[in-house]
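Here is one chain, start to finish.
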Amino acid sequence: MESLPSSSGPTVGELVTRGEEALSRTSPSARLDAEVLLSHVMSLPRSALIARWRDACATGTATAFGALLERRGRGEPVAYLVGSREFYGRSFAVAPAVLIPRPESELIIDEALKACEGKGDVSIADLGTGSGCLAITIILELASRGTRAVAVATDVSAAALEVARRNAAALGAQRHITFATSDWLSAAGVFSPPYDLIVANPPYVSADEPVPVDLSFEPAGALFSADAGLADVKKVISQGVPMLKRGGILLCEVGAGKRAALGGFLPELGLDVSVSLLGDPSALDRFTVVRAERVA
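Its structure:
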């Protein structure tokens, strides 16, 4: 935590105001971004800024804050600048090697907990784990409900797996998760089906879709997919469902505008599976979670 400087510099309030003004043209959340970045520089919780509002800051604080504002002004996500993002009430380390966890993905957690309700033991596969937020959160939430769970969490990126391992260790889930390299379900000797639950947030953005500038800082391999953005989604579903136990659930996140295409693909699978499309059913079709239950 920053101590009060001996010489007068800009106050906390002045820095926040400057930051908001500097980001107002490039960020829809300029005030929030400025507060988060300054609290990071000062090693304070954001809520503590108000109490320090009139306190003068050291020159080094203003300089470090200004450098972060410049990077944010170029579109770099706040989560990468501060090195973490909250997901389901926990703080996860993030880096440019992994996607930044998003609130929409919390629907997968909610549905996973429903699917595992009342079970004493649960086996899980998390495909394309990235930061590990899905597997780690599910493991910890199930443990708090008295359910023992073990998971295999895979990714094709060694750098992503390192971030996921770090998060598992920091949050106390490492004993319950095996991390392994695999391009979806292709790696031999990694998986031990059948599973109670398979979760995935695969790439689902088509190369010709317009994307916000923030996404240009996130790993392209975790964002973009062929076949109008559905190539990896189709692999996850078609390869994953046969690896489920009878009554097992697969949950796979899919991006905006994909419901119609999914409606045409899913009946072609030829699998004994009951499918629901969860999420945003409006005309905007912002995101979808495919829930596939193996019925035989």
